[in-house]
Amino acid sequence: MGHGSGFSALAVVSACLIVWGIVSGRLERWDVSAPIAFVVLGVIVTHGPTALVHFTLHSSTILSLAEITLAIVLFADASRVNLRALRADAAIPARLLGIGLPLTIAAGAATAALLFGNSGLWVAAAIGAIVAPTDAALGASIMSDERVPSGVRRTLNVESGLNDGIATPFVNFFIAGAVTADALAGQHLWAAVGALVGGTLLGIGIGVVGAALLAWARRHRWSAAGYRPLAILALAVFSYSAASVAGVNGFVCAFVAGIAFGSIDHHNDEAVLGFTEEVGSLLSLLIWFIFGAVMLVPGLKDAGWRDALFALLALTVLRMVPVAVALAGTGLDRATVAFVGWFGPRGLASVVFGLLAVDALEPSQSKAVLAVVTVTVGLSVLLHGISSSPLAARYGAYAAARLEAGHPAHGRAGGAAPIATRSLRRRGRSGADRESSAGEAGPT
């Protein structure tokens, strides 16, 4: 992309952000979420008679942007996790992450092997891992609807915030297996395992040291309050870039660094942590734009009935059955289990993992991955987007009428505060915005 075309792309993308900032409240009231809007905008401005710019799927700039975006999002989500506080209400999220997620990856890999056997077992396993993580931001109406029991919202929030980081080693491991020759597979896979272990250790060190330094500087008034958010954002970027320089897994490093940071430093207020989330949100919008610009159209062109079948299974049976198995014995009723099982939208992590796989695999394999990931994510954006509000209302009414205060769906009093979804959550007149406007209006 040349100098002039680069500024053209920047102008188009920034114009899309301005348009969304102007009309977002109105569109969100019609259940048009930010991901849906930016996917559509990405298609409109890059294809057909309305095309203004052109992006290349294998662009190194796009890949780098995707990697940095996921690293910041992983750090931001993980930094919300106070491990000590989470223990009070961790049983159900832990089951979803420790039992449900591995079962979902295994079921997805087995199904992909049956439907796309020609691509090889490693590619099938990679597909299963790529489409396993969920993204609660695609159903922001559920997360902001107070009729849905707080325990359910917290469970979905924690699962969404952490499962992409947990899935990262699986994705990297399976892609490494797919790109190596049989004779060298063992050697490269051991290298991949070493990179994962190294990323974990480095992430712990960066998170602990970074939290300790920032806490010390705050106590001794060395740091200016206005620059603390920048320092935390820089810590997220540093964890990924330092891991890349060291030759270890950057995504795992960023995720673990976020957990270590959030568990050590408990005094960061919303403004400080929120800045990193806001930057991650901006970059996330760009990734959704890129999904519409470079993945959706070519992915749909290469897709067939097998991709559609896999996508339907991935969003239903391959998600809901592992969730039911994971939640067996928790005391949750069938309606709640079904609600949690359905609400597993595939989003940002699957898009970024898909871009990484497409860049790493050989052409025939990358086409297979692109098609199935595109169909699965695209269908999820549509189905979860249009169903989140009606289901939230229906399940909320059911919970109010049927579920008593002590039901596990309501969570434990004093449990961990929810992890903020990667701020594609609604910006309209909900939550703090409603309270703010009420305060400004005064008593009536």
Gap between N and C termini, in Å?
A: 57 Å
- The CATH architecture category equals Up-down Bundle
Give the overall average pLDDT: 82
What Rg do the Cα atoms give? 21 Å
Question: How many domains, as an integer?
Answer: 1
Q: Residue share in helices?
A: over 70%
What is the element string, with H for helices and E for strands?
HHHHHHHHHHHHHHHHHH
Uncertain segments of ≥5 residues (pLDDT<50)? 413-421, 423-444
Beta-strand residue fraction: under 5%
Tell me the overall shape. Answer: globular
- Our count of helices gives 18
CATH topological fold name: Na+/H+ antiporter like fold
Query: What is the assembly state of the chains in this entry?
Result: single chain
CATH class: Mainly Alpha
- Helices and strands: which structural class? mainly alpha
**Extended strand count:** 0
Please write out the topology.
Elements: H1 3-29, H2 34-44, H3 60-79, H4 83-86, H5 91-115, H6 121-130, H7 140-144, H8 150-179, H9 182-219, H10 228-246, H11 250-264, H12 270-302, H13 305-315, H14 317-326, H15 334-342, H16 348-360, H17 363-402, H18 432-441
Helix pairs in contact: 1-2, 2-12, 3-10, 3-11, 3-12, 3-16, 5-6, 5-8, 5-13, 5-14, 6-8, 8-9, 8-11, 8-16, 9-10, 9-11, 10-11, 10-12, 12-16, 12-17, 13-14, 13-17, 14-15, 16-17
